[in-house]
Amino acid sequence: MAAPNKGRRQAGSPGRPGRTLALFLIAMVALTGGMFWSGHVTPRLGIDLAGGTSITLQAKNTPGKPNAINKTNMDTAVSIIERRVNGLGVSEAEVQTQGDENIIVNIPRGTNEKQAREQVGTTAQLYFRPVLTVAAGSPTTPQPSGSGSPSAAPSSSTSASTGDKEGDKADGGDSTASPKASATSQGRAVTDALKADASPSPDASASDKSSDKSSDKKNESPAPSASASSDPATAALEKKFTELDCTKKTARTEVNQSSAPKDTIVACGQNSGGEWEKYVLGPAELEGTDVDDAKGVLDQQRGMWIVTMDFTGAGTKKFQSITGKLSQQQAPMNQFAIVLDGNVVSAPSVSQTLGSSAEISGSFTQQSAQDLGNILSYGALPLTFQEQSVTTVTAALGGEQLEAGLIAGAIGLALVVIYLVAYYRGLSAIAILSLGASGIMTYTIMSLLGPGIGFALNLPAVCGAIVAIGITADSFIVYFERIRDEIREGRTLRPAVERAWPRARRTILVSDFVSFLAAAVLFLVTVGKVQGFAFTLGLTTLLDVVVVFFFTKPVMTLLARTKFFSSGHPWSGLDPTRLGAKPPLRRTRRVSAPTDPKEA
User: Fold this and answer.
1) Which neighbouring-strand residues pair with 97?
2) Predicted model pTM
3) Residue 80's closest CA among 126, 112, 124?
4) Is the peptide bond before 232 cis (omega within 30 degrees of 0)?
5) For 107-117, b where at least 16 C-beta lie within 10 A, e where not — what string?
6) How far apart are CA 418 and CA 288, in angstroms?
7) What is the pLDDT of residues 294-325, one digit of tens each?
8) How far apart are alpha carbons 284 and 47 in whole angstroms?
Protein backbone atom coordinates (compact mmCIF):
# COMPACT_ATOMS: atom_id res chain seq x y z
CA MET A 1 0.00 0.00 0.00
CA ALA A 2 1.47 3.32 -1.03
CA ALA A 3 2.40 5.72 1.73
CA PRO A 4 0.34 8.93 1.91
CA ASN A 5 1.87 12.04 0.36
CA LYS A 6 2.86 14.11 3.36
CA GLY A 7 3.93 17.08 1.22
CA ARG A 8 0.45 17.72 -0.17
CA ARG A 9 -1.95 19.69 1.99
CA GLN A 10 -5.39 18.15 2.11
CA ALA A 11 -8.46 20.14 1.18
CA GLY A 12 -9.90 21.93 4.16
CA SER A 13 -6.64 22.05 6.11
CA PRO A 14 -5.75 25.40 7.72
CA GLY A 15 -2.37 25.90 6.02
CA ARG A 16 -0.27 28.69 7.55
CA PRO A 17 -2.61 31.56 8.39
CA GLY A 18 0.02 33.42 10.44
CA ARG A 19 2.40 33.70 7.49
CA THR A 20 -0.36 34.85 5.12
CA LEU A 21 -1.56 37.47 7.59
CA ALA A 22 2.00 38.70 8.17
CA LEU A 23 2.57 39.15 4.41
CA PHE A 24 -0.65 41.17 4.11
CA LEU A 25 0.28 43.42 7.03
CA ILE A 26 3.79 43.96 5.61
CA ALA A 27 2.31 44.98 2.25
CA MET A 28 -0.14 47.36 3.93
CA VAL A 29 2.63 48.96 6.01
CA ALA A 30 4.84 49.28 2.91
CA LEU A 31 2.08 51.02 0.92
CA THR A 32 1.33 53.36 3.81
CA GLY A 33 5.01 54.15 4.23
CA GLY A 34 5.33 54.80 0.50
CA MET A 35 2.41 57.22 0.70
CA PHE A 36 4.08 59.24 3.46
CA TRP A 37 7.49 59.03 1.77
CA SER A 38 6.08 60.39 -1.52
CA GLY A 39 4.58 63.36 0.29
CA HIS A 40 1.11 62.75 -1.19
CA VAL A 41 -0.84 61.84 1.94
CA THR A 42 -4.23 62.77 0.47
CA PRO A 43 -5.82 61.76 -2.84
CA ARG A 44 -5.76 64.27 -5.66
CA LEU A 45 -9.12 65.92 -6.15
CA GLY A 46 -11.06 66.51 -9.34
CA ILE A 47 -12.37 69.85 -10.54
CA ASP A 48 -15.71 69.39 -8.74
CA LEU A 49 -13.90 69.08 -5.39
CA ALA A 50 -10.72 71.12 -5.86
CA GLY A 51 -11.91 73.78 -8.30
CA GLY A 52 -10.04 74.75 -11.45
CA THR A 53 -10.57 76.23 -14.89
CA SER A 54 -13.28 75.57 -17.45
CA ILE A 55 -12.43 76.51 -21.05
CA THR A 56 -14.93 76.71 -23.92
CA LEU A 57 -13.48 76.24 -27.41
CA GLN A 58 -15.40 76.95 -30.61
CA ALA A 59 -14.45 75.06 -33.76
CA LYS A 60 -13.60 76.89 -36.97
CA ASN A 61 -13.46 75.36 -40.43
CA THR A 62 -10.00 74.42 -41.66
CA PRO A 63 -8.87 76.41 -44.75
CA GLY A 64 -9.68 74.40 -47.86
CA LYS A 65 -12.13 72.18 -45.95
CA PRO A 66 -15.39 74.12 -45.57
CA ASN A 67 -17.34 71.17 -44.14
CA ALA A 68 -14.72 70.00 -41.67
CA ILE A 69 -16.88 70.58 -38.59
CA ASN A 70 -18.57 67.20 -38.15
CA LYS A 71 -19.01 64.60 -35.42
CA THR A 72 -15.97 62.57 -36.49
CA ASN A 73 -13.57 65.52 -36.39
CA MET A 74 -15.04 66.82 -33.13
CA ASP A 75 -14.60 63.40 -31.47
CA THR A 76 -11.04 63.22 -32.80
CA ALA A 77 -10.29 66.68 -31.41
CA VAL A 78 -11.69 65.68 -28.00
CA SER A 79 -9.45 62.60 -27.94
CA ILE A 80 -6.31 64.56 -28.93
CA ILE A 81 -6.94 67.37 -26.42
CA GLU A 82 -7.57 64.85 -23.65
CA ARG A 83 -4.32 63.01 -24.40
CA ARG A 84 -2.38 66.26 -24.55
CA VAL A 85 -3.64 67.47 -21.19
CA ASN A 86 -3.31 64.12 -19.44
CA GLY A 87 0.14 63.73 -20.99
CA LEU A 88 1.17 66.70 -18.85
CA GLY A 89 0.05 64.86 -15.72
CA VAL A 90 -3.01 67.02 -15.10
CA SER A 91 -5.34 65.03 -12.87
CA GLU A 92 -8.80 64.10 -14.11
CA ALA A 93 -9.03 66.58 -16.97
CA GLU A 94 -12.51 66.42 -18.47
CA VAL A 95 -12.94 67.05 -22.20
CA GLN A 96 -16.35 66.77 -23.86
CA THR A 97 -18.35 68.23 -26.71
CA GLN A 98 -21.20 70.68 -26.24
CA GLY A 99 -23.49 71.07 -29.20
CA ASP A 100 -22.08 70.82 -32.71
CA GLU A 101 -19.22 73.33 -32.56
CA ASN A 102 -18.04 73.66 -28.95
CA ILE A 103 -15.69 71.66 -26.74
CA ILE A 104 -15.63 72.11 -22.96
CA VAL A 105 -12.30 71.46 -21.21
CA ASN A 106 -12.32 71.27 -17.41
CA ILE A 107 -8.84 71.42 -15.86
CA PRO A 108 -8.59 70.86 -12.10
CA ARG A 109 -6.44 73.19 -10.07
CA GLY A 110 -2.89 71.86 -10.13
CA THR A 111 0.74 72.57 -10.93
CA ASN A 112 0.34 72.02 -14.69
CA GLU A 113 -2.93 73.90 -15.10
CA LYS A 114 -1.28 76.80 -16.94
CA GLN A 115 0.55 74.49 -19.36
CA ALA A 116 -2.62 72.57 -20.08
CA ARG A 117 -4.53 75.76 -20.82
CA GLU A 118 -1.87 76.80 -23.33
CA GLN A 119 -2.05 73.46 -25.14
CA VAL A 120 -5.77 72.70 -25.29
CA GLY A 121 -6.52 75.04 -28.20
CA THR A 122 -3.22 74.75 -30.04
CA THR A 123 -4.01 73.30 -33.44
CA ALA A 124 -0.43 71.99 -33.92
CA GLN A 125 -0.60 71.95 -37.72
CA LEU A 126 2.99 71.09 -38.64
CA TYR A 127 4.36 71.52 -42.14
CA PHE A 128 7.79 71.38 -43.74
CA ARG A 129 7.91 74.00 -46.51
CA PRO A 130 10.77 75.08 -48.80
CA VAL A 131 11.94 78.65 -48.29
CA LEU A 132 11.67 80.87 -51.36
CA THR A 133 12.87 84.16 -49.90
CA VAL A 134 13.49 85.85 -46.53
CA ALA A 135 13.48 89.48 -45.44
CA ALA A 136 13.41 91.56 -42.29
CA GLY A 137 10.11 91.33 -40.45
CA SER A 138 9.17 95.01 -40.47
CA PRO A 139 7.06 96.46 -43.32
CA THR A 140 8.69 98.55 -46.04
CA THR A 141 7.55 101.63 -47.91
CA PRO A 142 7.51 101.70 -51.72
CA GLN A 143 10.47 103.42 -53.35
CA PRO A 144 10.96 104.50 -56.95
CA SER A 145 12.33 101.85 -59.25
CA GLY A 146 16.07 102.07 -59.70
CA SER A 147 16.64 103.96 -56.48
CA GLY A 148 19.55 101.75 -55.73
CA SER A 149 18.23 100.37 -52.48
CA PRO A 150 19.60 96.99 -51.66
CA SER A 151 17.49 93.95 -52.39
CA ALA A 152 16.22 91.66 -49.69
CA ALA A 153 18.64 88.96 -48.85
CA PRO A 154 18.05 85.90 -46.78
CA SER A 155 18.44 86.49 -43.09
CA SER A 156 19.67 84.25 -40.36
CA SER A 157 17.18 81.59 -39.38
CA THR A 158 16.57 79.76 -36.17
CA SER A 159 19.25 77.14 -35.92
CA ALA A 160 18.07 73.57 -36.47
CA SER A 161 19.76 70.31 -37.25
CA THR A 162 18.29 67.24 -38.87
CA GLY A 163 19.21 63.71 -39.68
CA ASP A 164 19.41 60.24 -38.30
CA LYS A 165 23.19 60.17 -37.99
CA GLU A 166 25.62 62.43 -36.28
CA GLY A 167 26.88 63.67 -39.61
CA ASP A 168 23.44 64.41 -40.98
CA LYS A 169 23.25 68.01 -39.84
CA ALA A 170 21.59 70.96 -41.51
CA ASP A 171 23.58 74.13 -41.62
CA GLY A 172 21.87 77.25 -40.33
CA GLY A 173 21.85 80.16 -42.72
CA ASP A 174 24.03 83.02 -41.52
CA SER A 175 23.56 85.65 -44.19
CA THR A 176 21.89 88.85 -43.06
CA ALA A 177 18.92 90.78 -44.33
CA SER A 178 18.95 94.46 -44.96
CA PRO A 179 16.34 96.04 -42.71
CA LYS A 180 15.99 98.98 -45.10
CA ALA A 181 15.16 96.90 -48.16
CA SER A 182 12.58 98.68 -50.30
CA ALA A 183 9.14 97.33 -51.14
CA THR A 184 10.14 97.25 -54.81
CA SER A 185 13.22 95.14 -54.17
CA GLN A 186 11.27 92.82 -51.86
CA GLY A 187 8.56 92.40 -54.49
CA ARG A 188 11.22 91.63 -57.11
CA ALA A 189 12.71 89.05 -54.76
CA VAL A 190 9.32 87.38 -54.39
CA THR A 191 8.75 87.23 -58.13
CA ASP A 192 12.23 85.90 -58.81
CA ALA A 193 11.80 83.25 -56.12
CA LEU A 194 8.47 82.11 -57.55
CA LYS A 195 9.96 81.87 -61.05
CA ALA A 196 12.95 79.94 -59.78
CA ASP A 197 10.72 77.62 -57.81
CA ALA A 198 8.52 76.92 -60.83
CA SER A 199 11.47 76.22 -63.15
CA PRO A 200 13.78 73.17 -62.92
CA SER A 201 17.15 73.66 -61.28
CA PRO A 202 19.80 74.32 -63.91
CA ASP A 203 22.55 71.79 -64.47
CA ALA A 204 25.86 72.12 -66.26
CA SER A 205 24.59 71.13 -69.69
CA ALA A 206 21.68 73.52 -69.47
CA SER A 207 23.98 76.40 -68.67
CA ASP A 208 26.14 75.56 -71.69
CA LYS A 209 23.15 75.59 -73.99
CA SER A 210 21.87 78.85 -72.59
CA SER A 211 25.21 80.54 -73.20
CA ASP A 212 24.92 79.75 -76.91
CA LYS A 213 21.63 81.58 -77.10
CA SER A 214 22.64 84.59 -75.04
CA SER A 215 23.84 86.55 -78.05
CA ASP A 216 20.48 86.11 -79.77
CA LYS A 217 18.64 87.66 -76.84
CA LYS A 218 20.75 90.82 -76.65
CA ASN A 219 18.72 92.56 -79.29
CA GLU A 220 15.37 91.62 -77.74
CA SER A 221 13.37 94.20 -75.82
CA PRO A 222 13.87 94.12 -72.05
CA ALA A 223 11.41 92.11 -69.97
CA PRO A 224 9.05 93.96 -67.66
CA SER A 225 10.20 94.44 -64.12
CA ALA A 226 9.49 91.72 -61.60
CA SER A 227 7.48 94.06 -59.46
CA ALA A 228 5.10 94.68 -62.31
CA SER A 229 4.07 91.07 -62.58
CA SER A 230 1.01 90.34 -64.70
CA ASP A 231 0.02 87.36 -62.51
CA PRO A 232 -2.63 88.58 -60.02
CA ALA A 233 -1.75 85.85 -57.50
CA THR A 234 1.92 86.78 -57.60
CA ALA A 235 1.11 90.47 -57.32
CA ALA A 236 -1.11 89.80 -54.31
CA LEU A 237 1.62 87.73 -52.69
CA GLU A 238 4.17 90.51 -53.33
CA LYS A 239 1.89 93.06 -51.69
CA LYS A 240 1.19 90.81 -48.73
CA PHE A 241 4.90 90.15 -48.26
CA THR A 242 5.99 93.80 -48.43
CA GLU A 243 3.21 95.07 -46.13
CA LEU A 244 3.51 92.30 -43.53
CA ASP A 245 4.71 93.51 -40.12
CA CYS A 246 5.88 90.47 -38.19
CA THR A 247 6.60 92.53 -35.10
CA LYS A 248 2.83 92.70 -34.44
CA LYS A 249 1.16 89.66 -32.90
CA THR A 250 -2.13 90.23 -34.72
CA ALA A 251 -0.35 90.25 -38.07
CA ARG A 252 1.46 86.99 -37.26
CA THR A 253 -1.75 85.20 -36.27
CA GLU A 254 -3.87 86.42 -39.17
CA VAL A 255 -1.39 86.09 -42.02
CA ASN A 256 -2.12 82.41 -42.83
CA GLN A 257 -5.66 81.85 -41.60
CA SER A 258 -7.00 81.07 -45.08
CA SER A 259 -4.00 79.14 -46.42
CA ALA A 260 -4.05 75.50 -47.51
CA PRO A 261 -1.07 73.09 -47.37
CA LYS A 262 -0.47 73.31 -51.12
CA ASP A 263 -0.51 77.12 -51.24
CA THR A 264 2.52 79.36 -51.44
CA ILE A 265 2.34 81.42 -48.27
CA VAL A 266 3.89 84.28 -46.35
CA ALA A 267 4.89 83.54 -42.76
CA CYS A 268 6.77 85.02 -39.82
CA GLY A 269 9.55 83.62 -37.67
CA GLN A 270 12.31 84.62 -35.28
CA ASN A 271 16.00 84.18 -36.01
CA SER A 272 18.63 83.09 -33.51
CA GLY A 273 19.01 86.70 -32.36
CA GLY A 274 15.33 86.99 -31.49
CA GLU A 275 14.53 89.33 -34.41
CA TRP A 276 11.40 88.78 -36.46
CA GLU A 277 11.72 87.86 -40.13
CA LYS A 278 9.18 87.19 -42.86
CA TYR A 279 9.32 84.36 -45.35
CA VAL A 280 7.81 83.33 -48.64
CA LEU A 281 7.32 79.57 -48.42
CA GLY A 282 6.44 77.04 -51.08
CA PRO A 283 3.81 74.29 -50.83
CA ALA A 284 4.15 71.85 -47.92
CA GLU A 285 6.33 68.81 -48.64
CA LEU A 286 5.73 67.06 -45.28
CA GLU A 287 2.95 67.29 -42.72
CA GLY A 288 2.61 66.53 -39.02
CA THR A 289 1.06 63.16 -39.85
CA ASP A 290 4.45 62.11 -41.22
CA VAL A 291 5.96 62.48 -37.72
CA ASP A 292 5.92 59.22 -35.77
CA ASP A 293 7.25 60.52 -32.43
CA ALA A 294 8.54 63.76 -30.96
CA LYS A 295 10.00 64.75 -27.61
CA GLY A 296 11.93 67.54 -25.97
CA VAL A 297 15.47 66.54 -24.95
CA LEU A 298 18.61 68.24 -23.72
CA ASP A 299 21.48 68.26 -26.22
CA GLN A 300 24.46 67.56 -23.99
CA GLN A 301 27.06 68.67 -26.55
CA ARG A 302 25.53 72.06 -27.24
CA GLY A 303 23.92 72.51 -23.83
CA MET A 304 20.54 73.49 -25.27
CA TRP A 305 17.04 72.06 -25.36
CA ILE A 306 15.84 70.70 -28.70
CA VAL A 307 12.84 68.80 -30.05
CA THR A 308 13.67 65.54 -31.81
CA MET A 309 11.31 64.00 -34.37
CA ASP A 310 11.20 60.54 -35.89
CA PHE A 311 9.38 60.15 -39.20
CA THR A 312 7.14 57.35 -40.37
CA GLY A 313 8.19 55.17 -43.30
CA ALA A 314 6.37 57.36 -45.80
CA GLY A 315 7.59 60.50 -44.04
CA THR A 316 11.21 59.33 -44.27
CA LYS A 317 10.94 58.98 -48.04
CA LYS A 318 9.41 62.43 -48.38
CA PHE A 319 12.06 63.95 -46.11
CA GLN A 320 14.90 62.38 -48.07
CA SER A 321 13.37 63.59 -51.32
CA ILE A 322 12.91 67.22 -50.26
CA THR A 323 16.31 67.52 -48.56
CA GLY A 324 17.94 66.00 -51.64
CA LYS A 325 16.39 68.70 -53.83
CA LEU A 326 17.11 71.55 -51.44
CA SER A 327 20.78 70.59 -51.07
CA GLN A 328 21.28 71.50 -54.76
CA GLN A 329 19.83 74.99 -54.40
CA GLN A 330 21.45 78.30 -53.52
CA ALA A 331 20.64 80.25 -50.37
CA PRO A 332 18.00 80.94 -49.26
CA MET A 333 16.27 78.33 -51.42
CA ASN A 334 18.32 75.57 -49.81
CA GLN A 335 16.42 76.12 -46.57
CA PHE A 336 13.26 74.38 -45.40
CA ALA A 337 10.95 76.00 -42.87
CA ILE A 338 9.35 74.03 -40.06
CA VAL A 339 5.99 75.77 -39.77
CA LEU A 340 3.79 75.23 -36.72
CA ASP A 341 0.31 76.79 -36.79
CA GLY A 342 1.36 79.26 -39.46
CA ASN A 343 4.59 80.48 -37.83
CA VAL A 344 8.13 79.46 -38.71
CA VAL A 345 9.78 77.88 -35.68
CA SER A 346 12.98 76.97 -37.50
CA ALA A 347 14.41 77.38 -41.01
CA PRO A 348 17.68 75.44 -41.38
CA SER A 349 19.63 75.19 -44.60
CA VAL A 350 20.44 71.78 -46.11
CA SER A 351 23.72 70.72 -47.65
CA GLN A 352 23.03 67.00 -48.15
CA THR A 353 20.25 64.42 -48.24
CA LEU A 354 19.06 63.63 -44.73
CA GLY A 355 17.55 60.54 -43.14
CA SER A 356 14.63 59.40 -41.00
CA SER A 357 14.80 61.89 -38.14
CA ALA A 358 15.06 65.61 -37.57
CA GLU A 359 15.47 68.02 -34.73
CA ILE A 360 14.18 71.51 -34.09
CA SER A 361 16.51 73.80 -32.19
CA GLY A 362 16.27 77.41 -31.19
CA SER A 363 15.65 79.44 -28.06
CA PHE A 364 13.81 76.60 -26.29
CA THR A 365 13.49 76.26 -22.56
CA GLN A 366 12.95 72.85 -20.99
CA GLN A 367 9.23 73.50 -20.66
CA SER A 368 8.71 74.85 -24.18
CA ALA A 369 10.69 71.97 -25.74
CA GLN A 370 8.73 69.35 -23.82
CA ASP A 371 5.45 71.11 -24.57
CA LEU A 372 6.15 71.14 -28.30
CA GLY A 373 7.22 67.48 -28.23
CA ASN A 374 4.03 66.59 -26.36
CA ILE A 375 1.87 68.44 -28.89
CA LEU A 376 3.57 66.90 -31.93
CA SER A 377 3.46 63.39 -30.45
CA TYR A 378 -0.32 63.36 -30.13
CA GLY A 379 -0.95 64.85 -33.56
CA ALA A 380 -2.61 67.95 -34.92
CA LEU A 381 -6.20 68.87 -34.29
CA PRO A 382 -8.40 68.36 -37.36
CA LEU A 383 -10.02 71.74 -36.72
CA THR A 384 -8.98 75.22 -35.68
CA PHE A 385 -10.40 76.31 -32.33
CA GLN A 386 -11.01 79.75 -30.93
CA GLU A 387 -11.14 80.28 -27.16
CA GLN A 388 -14.62 81.55 -26.39
CA SER A 389 -14.58 81.78 -22.60
CA VAL A 390 -12.47 80.87 -19.58
CA THR A 391 -14.26 80.37 -16.27
CA THR A 392 -12.77 79.78 -12.84
CA VAL A 393 -14.64 77.01 -11.03
CA THR A 394 -14.76 77.16 -7.23
CA ALA A 395 -14.86 74.08 -5.04
CA ALA A 396 -17.58 75.45 -2.73
CA LEU A 397 -20.47 73.53 -4.30
CA GLY A 398 -18.42 70.36 -4.65
CA GLY A 399 -17.30 70.66 -1.03
CA GLU A 400 -20.91 70.80 0.16
CA GLN A 401 -21.80 67.78 -1.96
CA LEU A 402 -18.76 65.92 -0.71
CA GLU A 403 -19.71 66.64 2.88
CA ALA A 404 -23.24 65.35 2.24
CA GLY A 405 -21.82 62.25 0.55
CA LEU A 406 -19.45 61.52 3.41
CA ILE A 407 -22.29 61.89 5.91
CA ALA A 408 -24.38 59.46 3.90
CA GLY A 409 -21.45 57.05 3.73
CA ALA A 410 -20.88 57.30 7.48
CA ILE A 411 -24.56 56.59 8.14
CA GLY A 412 -24.49 53.60 5.82
CA LEU A 413 -21.33 52.25 7.44
CA ALA A 414 -22.83 52.69 10.91
CA LEU A 415 -25.96 50.76 9.88
CA VAL A 416 -23.80 47.95 8.48
CA VAL A 417 -21.82 47.76 11.74
CA ILE A 418 -25.01 47.73 13.84
CA TYR A 419 -26.42 44.90 11.74
CA LEU A 420 -23.20 42.88 12.01
CA VAL A 421 -23.03 43.30 15.80
CA ALA A 422 -26.70 42.44 16.29
CA TYR A 423 -26.71 39.40 14.05
CA TYR A 424 -23.14 38.02 14.12
CA ARG A 425 -22.02 39.28 17.55
CA GLY A 426 -18.38 38.22 18.02
CA LEU A 427 -17.90 37.60 14.30
CA SER A 428 -18.66 41.28 13.71
CA ALA A 429 -15.20 42.11 15.11
CA ILE A 430 -13.62 40.19 12.19
CA ALA A 431 -15.87 42.02 9.71
CA ILE A 432 -15.08 45.45 11.18
CA LEU A 433 -11.33 44.74 11.16
CA SER A 434 -11.59 43.61 7.53
CA LEU A 435 -13.53 46.74 6.59
CA GLY A 436 -10.84 48.83 8.29
CA ALA A 437 -8.06 47.03 6.41
CA SER A 438 -9.93 47.50 3.13
CA GLY A 439 -10.42 51.20 3.87
CA ILE A 440 -6.73 51.74 4.64
CA MET A 441 -5.69 49.94 1.44
CA THR A 442 -8.19 51.90 -0.66
CA TYR A 443 -7.15 55.29 0.73
CA THR A 444 -3.43 54.54 0.40
CA ILE A 445 -3.66 53.29 -3.17
CA MET A 446 -5.82 56.25 -4.23
CA SER A 447 -3.25 58.64 -2.76
CA LEU A 448 -0.44 56.89 -4.64
CA LEU A 449 -2.36 56.71 -7.93
CA GLY A 450 -2.67 60.51 -7.99
CA PRO A 451 0.98 61.26 -8.81
CA GLY A 452 1.39 57.84 -10.43
CA ILE A 453 -1.25 57.84 -13.20
CA GLY A 454 -3.02 61.16 -12.64
CA PHE A 455 -6.04 59.66 -10.86
CA ALA A 456 -8.21 62.27 -9.18
CA LEU A 457 -11.02 61.73 -6.73
CA ASN A 458 -14.30 63.28 -7.79
CA LEU A 459 -17.85 62.98 -6.45
CA PRO A 460 -18.79 59.91 -8.53
CA ALA A 461 -15.59 58.22 -7.35
CA VAL A 462 -16.60 58.87 -3.76
CA CYS A 463 -19.97 57.24 -4.54
CA GLY A 464 -18.14 54.22 -5.92
CA ALA A 465 -16.15 53.90 -2.69
CA ILE A 466 -19.36 54.07 -0.63
CA VAL A 467 -21.02 51.38 -2.76
CA ALA A 468 -17.94 49.20 -2.22
CA ILE A 469 -18.73 49.04 1.52
CA GLY A 470 -21.71 46.84 0.73
CA ILE A 471 -19.73 44.67 -1.66
CA THR A 472 -17.02 44.05 0.93
CA ALA A 473 -19.51 43.35 3.73
CA ASP A 474 -21.35 40.90 1.46
CA SER A 475 -18.18 38.79 1.13
CA PHE A 476 -17.90 38.46 4.92
CA ILE A 477 -21.55 37.49 5.24
CA VAL A 478 -21.15 34.74 2.62
CA TYR A 479 -18.20 33.25 4.51
CA PHE A 480 -19.86 33.52 7.95
CA GLU A 481 -23.03 31.84 6.71
CA ARG A 482 -21.06 28.97 5.22
CA ILE A 483 -19.35 28.44 8.59
CA ARG A 484 -22.71 28.46 10.34
CA ASP A 485 -24.06 25.89 7.89
CA GLU A 486 -21.20 23.56 8.75
CA ILE A 487 -21.85 24.01 12.49
CA ARG A 488 -25.52 23.24 11.95
CA GLU A 489 -24.43 19.98 10.37
CA GLY A 490 -22.85 19.03 13.70
CA ARG A 491 -19.19 19.91 13.06
CA THR A 492 -16.96 21.73 15.50
CA LEU A 493 -15.65 25.20 14.71
CA ARG A 494 -12.15 24.47 13.42
CA PRO A 495 -13.22 21.87 10.81
CA ALA A 496 -16.23 24.06 9.96
CA VAL A 497 -13.99 27.06 9.21
CA GLU A 498 -11.84 25.08 6.79
CA ARG A 499 -14.67 23.14 5.12
CA ALA A 500 -16.73 26.30 4.61
CA TRP A 501 -13.91 28.19 2.91
CA PRO A 502 -13.85 26.40 -0.51
CA ARG A 503 -17.62 26.85 -0.92
CA ALA A 504 -17.56 30.50 0.21
CA ARG A 505 -14.49 31.23 -1.92
CA ARG A 506 -16.24 30.21 -5.13
CA THR A 507 -19.29 32.33 -4.32
CA ILE A 508 -17.15 35.38 -3.44
CA LEU A 509 -15.07 35.12 -6.63
CA VAL A 510 -18.14 34.82 -8.85
CA SER A 511 -19.83 37.77 -7.14
CA ASP A 512 -16.74 39.99 -7.34
CA PHE A 513 -16.12 38.98 -10.96
CA VAL A 514 -19.60 40.18 -11.92
CA SER A 515 -19.04 43.48 -10.07
CA PHE A 516 -15.63 44.00 -11.67
CA LEU A 517 -16.97 43.18 -15.14
CA ALA A 518 -19.74 45.74 -14.72
CA ALA A 519 -17.20 48.35 -13.58
CA ALA A 520 -14.89 47.59 -16.53
CA VAL A 521 -17.69 47.89 -19.09
CA LEU A 522 -18.89 51.11 -17.49
CA PHE A 523 -15.37 52.54 -17.60
CA LEU A 524 -14.92 51.68 -21.29
CA VAL A 525 -18.25 52.95 -22.60
CA THR A 526 -18.50 56.17 -20.60
CA VAL A 527 -16.50 59.42 -20.44
CA GLY A 528 -15.80 62.09 -17.89
CA LYS A 529 -16.80 61.79 -14.28
CA VAL A 530 -18.69 58.52 -14.67
CA GLN A 531 -15.34 56.86 -15.35
CA GLY A 532 -14.29 57.92 -11.85
CA PHE A 533 -17.19 55.93 -10.39
CA ALA A 534 -16.33 52.88 -12.51
CA PHE A 535 -12.62 53.06 -11.70
CA THR A 536 -13.20 53.28 -7.95
CA LEU A 537 -15.76 50.47 -8.04
CA GLY A 538 -13.37 48.21 -9.93
CA LEU A 539 -10.45 49.06 -7.63
CA THR A 540 -12.41 48.37 -4.44
CA THR A 541 -13.74 45.12 -5.90
CA LEU A 542 -10.20 43.88 -6.49
CA LEU A 543 -9.20 44.95 -3.00
CA ASP A 544 -12.19 43.03 -1.61
CA VAL A 545 -10.73 39.81 -3.03
CA VAL A 546 -7.31 40.63 -1.58
CA VAL A 547 -8.69 41.44 1.88
CA VAL A 548 -10.94 38.36 2.09
CA PHE A 549 -8.20 35.96 0.94
CA PHE A 550 -5.23 37.44 2.80
CA PHE A 551 -6.83 38.98 5.88
CA THR A 552 -10.34 37.74 6.71
CA LYS A 553 -9.66 34.03 6.16
CA PRO A 554 -6.36 33.91 8.14
CA VAL A 555 -7.89 35.92 11.01
CA MET A 556 -10.90 33.59 11.11
CA THR A 557 -8.62 30.55 11.20
CA LEU A 558 -6.56 31.98 14.07
CA LEU A 559 -9.60 33.04 16.12
CA ALA A 560 -11.18 29.61 15.68
CA ARG A 561 -8.38 28.27 17.87
CA THR A 562 -9.33 30.52 20.78
CA LYS A 563 -11.58 29.25 23.57
CA PHE A 564 -14.12 32.07 23.14
CA PHE A 565 -15.02 31.01 19.59
CA SER A 566 -14.22 27.30 19.66
CA SER A 567 -16.39 26.67 22.74
CA GLY A 568 -19.39 28.29 21.05
CA HIS A 569 -19.80 31.16 23.50
CA PRO A 570 -23.24 32.77 23.21
CA TRP A 571 -21.67 36.08 22.20
CA SER A 572 -19.32 34.51 19.66
CA GLY A 573 -22.06 34.31 17.03
CA LEU A 574 -21.30 30.60 16.63
CA ASP A 575 -23.30 29.08 19.49
CA PRO A 576 -24.44 25.63 18.24
CA THR A 577 -27.58 25.79 20.39
CA ARG A 578 -28.72 29.12 18.90
CA LEU A 579 -27.89 27.87 15.41
CA GLY A 580 -29.96 24.68 15.90
CA ALA A 581 -27.01 22.34 15.34
CA LYS A 582 -27.60 18.61 14.94
CA PRO A 583 -25.98 16.14 17.31
CA PRO A 584 -22.54 15.00 16.21
CA LEU A 585 -22.69 12.21 13.68
CA ARG A 586 -21.39 8.92 15.04
CA ARG A 587 -20.57 5.94 12.89
CA THR A 588 -21.87 2.51 14.15
CA ARG A 589 -21.29 -0.94 12.78
CA ARG A 590 -24.32 -2.76 11.55
CA VAL A 591 -24.59 -6.57 12.08
CA SER A 592 -26.59 -8.16 9.33
CA ALA A 593 -28.94 -11.06 10.20
CA PRO A 594 -27.62 -14.47 9.24
CA THR A 595 -29.34 -16.09 6.29
CA ASP A 596 -27.83 -19.57 6.59
CA PRO A 597 -29.54 -21.72 9.29
CA LYS A 598 -26.28 -23.46 10.02
CA GLU A 599 -24.60 -20.13 10.87
CA ALA A 600 -27.47 -19.26 13.18
Assistant:
1) 103
2) 0.53
3) 124
4) no
5) bbbbebbebbb
6) 63
7) 888 888 888 888 888 888 888 888 888 888 88
8) 41
